[in-house]
């Protein structure tokens, strides 16, 4: 069995069985397997490509197998998904895709299951990718279901994204957004201010952002000893906007309330260091708190990293901070390029639970602000309930908050003009198809007293 395929399969199994994140698991799996650059690229494409189009592949597998996918043993199903991706979306020869997948099934589930896998895959090879796409779309019950099968997004996600774009008067960009979600993002790096200088090619917006020559950032990151890291440009812009929301004063106290995995924390820490500002961070999940501490290793000085429920920490420190970042837990619908499994993992029921948490975190953060203090509320999701809905609820319940023009702040820090279509509120919504970033949302609220 080819090692790259085995690595990809193991990642798929971990995502299915343990709710693992492919972007966190895959690099270590590639290193442990000792894959060279070519095989590492293949493993990455197989894992990410299969996860992105899982819903479409499941419909094709069900049609070819003559049974629903929940009637197929999970390890066999993941192997079939991997095989179908090779057959329909790569240049891998049909015989190689079939044989490797059948051998994989035999190794993990036995010869009986491998015969079933062989029959399903050979059935799929008899029709073109276009014919299979037409066949499954013909079974759709609505235009949204057809689009879901074509663009490999759940229907509820498509509708949420359409509503978010429509709020900006840009509903016509939906298919461009879905297409961007299904493309691998370019690697973007951050050069921590005062500690490293951005290289080439520069990214268009963040002063700290640049691309990775050749696409592989590992050598640059290792040589920089923590002062250069991989970080999406949208995430960098959120941290830069909080720092630029008001003139910086020595002695300010900052808090990153939901800090994991630590990219924004490190950028804020570098900025704070330049201006004699103290920063604290908090992350409730111990494993993610360790990632925050690791992210901070390149920034001289001490940043205390708490491991508490952010609501409790903020409530215990009333009026203590001048700036707070609340990068709240969310559905992750803005990062589907980098976390393709998120689209299949979340459901509409998750949104209500997350919104309640987001409101509580933001409310507690406001209480922890000193008079005149500013909170940046951010999510890596454009879902309106998680973005404008949360901010509006907080504003309705308090008379001591003023909403700042986050768009004007962001426009003051970008290197080149940025297209920020808005709803008139001054809030910022970034988009993969328009800005080449994750779909980060940002609002800035200032406590008046």
Q: How would you sum up the global shape?
A: globular
- Binned strand content: 5-15%
- Which structural class do you get from the secondary structure elements? alpha/beta
* Count of beta strands: 11
Helix content range: 40-55%
Q: N-to-C terminal Cα separation, in Å?
A: 66 Å
List the total number of helices.
21
What is the average of the pLDDT values?
96
Give a quick account of the main beta sheet: strands, pairing sense, barrel closure: 8 strands, mixed
Which regions have little confidence, pLDDT < 50, spanning 5+ residues? none
Rg from alpha-carbon coordinates: 23 Å
Q: Which properties best describe this structure?
A:
single chain; 449 residues; alpha/beta; eight-stranded mixed sheet; three-stranded antiparallel sheet; 21 helices; 52% helix; globular
In terms of topology, how is this protein built?
Blueprint: H1 3-18, H2 22-33, H3 37-52, H4 54-65, H5 74-89, H6 94-109, H7 111-125, H8 129-138, H9 143-151, H10 155-166, H11 174-181, E1 188-191, E2 209-211, H12 218-224, E3 228-230, H13 233-244, E4 253-256, H14 263-274, E5 278-282, H15 286-295, E6 304-306, H16 310-315, E7 321-327, H17 342-345, H18 348-367, E8 369-379, H19 388-396, E9 401-404, H20 406-413, E10 428-429, H21 432-435, E11 441-447
Parallel strand pairs: 4-5, 4-7, 5-6, 7-8
Antiparallel strand pairs: 1-2, 1-3, 8-11, 9-11, 10-11
């Amino acid at each position: 069995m080819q090692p790259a395929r085995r690595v990809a399969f193991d990642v798929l199994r971990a995502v299915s069985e343990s709710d693992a994140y492919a972007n966190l698991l895959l690099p270590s799996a590639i290193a442990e397997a000792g894959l060279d650059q070519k095989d590492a690229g293949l493993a990455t494409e197989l894992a990410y490509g299969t996860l992105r189009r899982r819903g479409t592949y499941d419909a094709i597998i069900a049609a070819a197998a003559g049974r629903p996918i929940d009637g197929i043993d999970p390890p066999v199903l993941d192997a079939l998904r991997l095989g179908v991706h090779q057959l329909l979306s790569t240049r891998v020869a049909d015989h190689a895709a079939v044989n490797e997948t059948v051998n994989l099934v035999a190794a993990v589930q036995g010869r009986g299951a491998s015969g079933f896998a062989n029959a399903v895959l050979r059935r799929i090879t008899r029709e073109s990718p276009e014919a299979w796409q037409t066949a499954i779309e013909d079974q759709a019950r609505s235009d949204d279901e057809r689009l879901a099968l074509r663009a490999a997004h759940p229907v509820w996600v498509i509708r949420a994204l359409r509503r978010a774009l429509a709020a900006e008067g840009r509903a016509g960009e939906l298919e461009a957004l879905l297409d961007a979600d299904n493309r691998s993002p370019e690697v973007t790096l951050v050069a921590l201010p005062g500690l490293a200088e951005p290289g080439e090619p520069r990214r268009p917006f963040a002063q700290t952002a640049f691309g990775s020559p050749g696409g592989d950032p590992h050598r640059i990151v290792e040589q920089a000893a923590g002062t250069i890291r991989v970080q999406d440009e949208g995430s960098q812009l959120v941290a830069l906007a909080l720092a630029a929301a008001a003139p910086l004063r020595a002695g300010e106290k900052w808090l990153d309330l939901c800090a994991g995995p630590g990219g924004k924390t490190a950028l804020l820490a570098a900025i704070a260091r330049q201006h004699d500002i103290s920063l604290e961070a908090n992350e409730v999940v111990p494993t993610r708190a360790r990632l925050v501490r690791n992210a901070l290793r390149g920034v001289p000085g001490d940043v205390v990293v708490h491991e508490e429920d952010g609501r409790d920490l903020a409530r215990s420190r009333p009026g203590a901070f001048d700036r707070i970042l609340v990068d709240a837990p969310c559905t992750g619908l803005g990062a589907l390029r980098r976390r393709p499994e998120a689209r299949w993992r979340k459901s509409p029921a998750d949104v209500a639970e997350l919104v309640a948490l987001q409101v509580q975190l933001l409310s507690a953060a406001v209480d922890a602000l000193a008079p005149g203090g500013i909170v940046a509320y951010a999510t890596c999701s454009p879902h309106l309930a998680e973005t404008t809905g949360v901010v509006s609820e907080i504003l309705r319940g308090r008379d001591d908050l003023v909403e700042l023009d986050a768009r004007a702040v962001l426009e003051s820090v970008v290197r080149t003009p940025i297209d920020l279509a808005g709803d008139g509120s001054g809030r910022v919504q970034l988009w993969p198809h328009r800005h080449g970033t994750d779909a980060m949302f940002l609002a800035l609220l200032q406590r008046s007293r």
